Amino acid sequence: MAKFNLKRSSMLLGAAVMMLSATAGYRDITGQYMQNPAFLPGWQGALTDVQWEVGEVYNGAFNLYQVLPDMPAGEYVLSANASYRCGNNDFAKANQAGNPELNTTFIYANGNKQVVKGLFEGREAAPNSLEEINAAFSAGEYLNTLTFNHDGGDLVIGICNTGCYNDEWAAFDNFTLKSGDKDYTELIKNANFAQGLDVKAECWDMVNSANSVKTPDVNKGGGVYRKTNASPYNFGQQIELPAGTYRFSALTFQRYGGAGNYDGKIITCKGQWGLTDVAKSPMQWWNDKSYAEDDFVNNAYLYVSFEADKPTSLSTSIEMLEENVVVTRLKGNWEICEGDYAAMPENETRGTADGVEIVPAYEVKNVVPNWCDSGMERESAAAFVANPEKWRQYVEFTLEAPAKVWVGLGKDENSPAQYWNPFADFKLEVLDGDNAVEAIDAANGAVEYYNLQGVRVANPQGGIFIVREGNKTTKKAIR
What is the CA radius of gyration of the chain? Predict the structure, then answer.
């Protein structure tokens, strides 16, 4: 049987360091080690398309950002050409101007933000395609600026939409960052979106357990990717890391089957209303507590592998290489919401094929009031933006020495029927030295020594070490 705790081996430490990681802080190093974490160069999060060298997210919430490490303290100005429409053209033109509730997109830097200009701001007619919005941006229109003070250290810059009404649309380009007479724009990778969305990029290995290539589904509404009721998938990337304690994560969940019950009916993964022949509903999975960590038929997983080749089949890899492949089962939306159906994001549409609206348009944000035969991602995208830590799931690991590792997300089987797995914002974080000190300082005990990665050392010599004595922690150079 597969085992799911980190075991001691030539690269892995044990439970001691993993226990530290539960309370210590992590630093986002995604941009320093991963390529195309959002399937386009430079940016983290998710979007739906790039054309005419303009990024866009159509019909949903999103967060797209970059982490600029170790930026000096000072006053900065972040700018970008960006526009936002809160619904369709007619609704946005009539209602958006001057209404804070409908202006939900903003550029930001750490905790500072500036609301993006509305598509019809100062206009009777507005661009209605990426080609047209690119022409407007090139003419200097829709310029947004944010002036802020930075205390020094890592700086997160980006653009975000918390979500509004069906048919909303955000477009953006030409990010710049300046501080006084210094121009830091070159630190923003792909700031002008000259390189677009590419789920087939060579840095990602997409070979699945059936030895075929399957890519993430995109452009389903909102800043989120997905797989649902489809072939097995496995999205992995090999990265080279120094020694340290890490976690690889994503905003994600898996739904075990169709959405549930609505007026006694089962909703399929693509928003089709009607009775569906499924062995077990997601509600039954939750009520019966049927989740098993080693269920490679029904589960999806985050993983890290220390082998030279990517583990295309997670079940086979773990059976053969138990110490060198680590997985974390993706929790279901019923688990994360503890059975509260009303709190769960869904991908069904709030309407029927004959045009009956279950939720009238422009009354409830972040749902789909009209019929859509392929399902939508508006609710999952909004949930990820509204409460990212609720939906972030991790696989954690520690390296005693520099090494190449594979990180990724995968599912070996197309099961159970109508399953749904949305995901966004792949992230790689490291437990930094200062936070390791704080974690060690939380415990009491005899004199103990740790290296700067937080790893306990029995006989320290020839370096700088963290020394813990009771509740006191210091750094010392030991020869």
Answer: 24
CB 80 within 8 A of CB 172: yes
Q: Is-contact 43 63, C-beta < 8 A?
A: no
- Report CA-CA distances (Å) from 101 to 96, 105, 164, 307: 8, 10, 8, 50
Q: What is the pLDDT of residue 265?
A: 57
The domain locations on the chain are: 1-38+208-350+392-431, 48-196, 444-478
Sign of CA dihedral 401, 402, 408, 411: negative
CB 160 within 8 A of CB 170: no
Question: Phi/psi of residue 25, each to 5°?
Answer: -90, 155
Q: What is the CATH number of domain 48-196?
A: 2.60.120
Q: Residue 260 corresponds to which tokens in the numbers above?
A: 């549930």
CB 426 within 8 A of CB 37: yes
The separation between CA 264 and the C-alpha centre of its own chain, rounded to angstroms, equals 34
Q: What rounded mean pLDDT belongs to the chain? A: 86
Q: Which of 218, 127, 115 is nearest to 164 (CA)?
A: 115
pTM of the predicted structure, to 2 decimals: 0.85
